[in-house]
Amino acid sequence: MLRGIYPGSFDPVTFGHLDIIRRSAKMVDELIVGVLNNKAKIPLFSVNERVKMLSEVTKEIPNLQIVPFEGLLVEFAREREADIIIRGLRAITDFEYELQMAQTNHKLADEIETIFLNTSLEYSYLSSTTVKEVASFGGDISQFVPTLVMDMMKEKRNTKGECK
User: Per-residue pLDDT tens for 41-91?
Assistant: First the structure.
């Protein structure tokens, strides 16, 4: 059985993330979406909120698990007995960073391969940071994220007064 991990912060999940998730799920027997709890960053959504969002917007994908994690990705991959790590690439700048991370991960765990998927052209500009910025100014984010995510971001804006 081929098991892959697609890690990220998903704060929030975008149509670009969902594109990579759907395409990756077709390539493996089991796909684990690892939701990173990065203590160095202050996310808009808690890990539990991000897991809930992802679980809801990917519920039609049968071979998918959504799992929170913290720490080293390769350790998480070993715990989950993953064979591959899947990373999405939007631009050259992504490639430089991702290549360095893939090489580091290979030194730490040479039994786990990293594969790169180019983001579909229609989402090549899209990032969670961009979505949060547009939302913080009250812009329409409906073309960037699913309705559930848009509603949760509006709720954050109403309760916190901002979407940053």
Answer: 889 999 999 999 999 999 999 999 999 999 999 999 999 999 999 999 998
Query: Residues for the chain: how many in total?
Result: 164
Least Cα distance to 67 among 34, 90, 25 occurs for 34
Find out whether 106 is annotated in a ligand binding site: no
Q: What is the pLDDT of residue 33?
A: 98
Q: Is 55 a catalytic residue?
A: no
DSSP 121: G
Give the pLDDT score at 161: 53
Structural tokens at position 11: 């704060």
Q: Where residue 93 falls among pLDDT bands split at 50, 70, 90?
A: confident
Q: Return the closest-CA partner of residue 72 out of 45, 34, 30.
A: 34
Active-site position among 90, 106, 154, 157: 90
Query: Residue 86: CA atoms inside 13 Å, Cβ hemisphere, count?
Result: 25
Catalytic residue among 24, 50, 128, 132: 128
Spell out the domains of the chain, with CATH numbers in brackets.
3-160 (3.40.50.620)
Angle between helices 128-136 and 147-160 (to 10 degrees): 50
